[in-house]
Amino acid sequence: AETKVYPRSNNGQLVLDRVVDANSVKGADGTANTTRLEKVPDVNGNLVVKTQREEVAVERGPNEKVVTSKTMAADHLTGKLAVTAEETTSITTQGGTKQIESTVRTPGRTGWELSGRTTTTETTAPDGSVSRETIENGRSIFSTKTGNELLEPLVPQRKIVEQETHRPDGTTIMQRDVFHRDVNGDWKPESFSTKQADKGRI
User: Which tops the pLDDT comparison, 174 or 77?
Assistant: First the structure.
């Protein structure tokens, strides 16, 4: 699969921003291997690789899938691709509820360190409506437990709440609200959160 992204420039012209090529190979055992290349144009308009992501998806029974991946980016010193992140995602489905847990490890001072964790709970109602809550965890910039932010435990930092409601007339009402945690640990809505539902016909 190939995806091309064309944003508009200041003069309203569509310009090529990036190209993503994805190639998937599925084995007889159900394991899927996917390679994604993100390319961006250089100053001469030639496409060069910006990042490469390699994923391996393994089915663990009818209700669980585990995806492991590594992301590589261009090292400007060597001109070669170097691994910048490793991610493990577990997707579990029980009835109408899907649980997605992802952990990200990045190179640190003492080797590979846990740098992020994301948990998403998605519930689908019998009428097709979907509610989704995502909590993103990262290093706290407020805590002083260790005196070193690199050693701080991961804590919830951002929450995204989404609701898709399907109506009998064929329209869908979508609402998305984003919250961040303040210094007191309370969730505060961000200014660009969706306060009123958007309508779209499907």
Answer: 174
- CA gap 6, 14 in Å, rounded: 6
The DSSP 8-state label assigned to residue 153 in this structure reads: P
Does 143 have pLDDT greater than 70?
Answer: no
Distance CA 119, CA 182 (A): 19
pLDDT higher than 80, residue 196: no
Query: What confidence tens digit (pLDDT) does each residue in 154-163 have?
Result: 889 999 999 9
Closest CA to 52 of 22, 78, 73: 73
- The token pair at 45 is 């308009």
- What average pLDDT score do residues 166-179 get? 88
- Compute the residue count for the chain: 202
The first and second tokens of residue 4, run together, are: 């091309």
Per DSSP (E only), the strands in 75-170 are: 81-94, 97-108, 111-124, 130-139, 154-166
Please state, in angstroms and rounded to a whole number, the distance separating the CA atoms of residues 179 and 177.
Answer: 7
66 forms beta bridges with 58, 90
Contact 116, 103 (CB under 8 A): yes
Burial classification of residue 9, based on how many CB atoms lie within 10 Å of its CB (0-12 exposed, 13-18 middle, 19 or more buried) = exposed
Residues of the chain with pLDDT > 70, as a percent, come to 88
Residue indicated by tokens 């649980």: 99
Residue 152 structure tokens? 């701080």
- Show the tokens assigned to 73: 């980016």
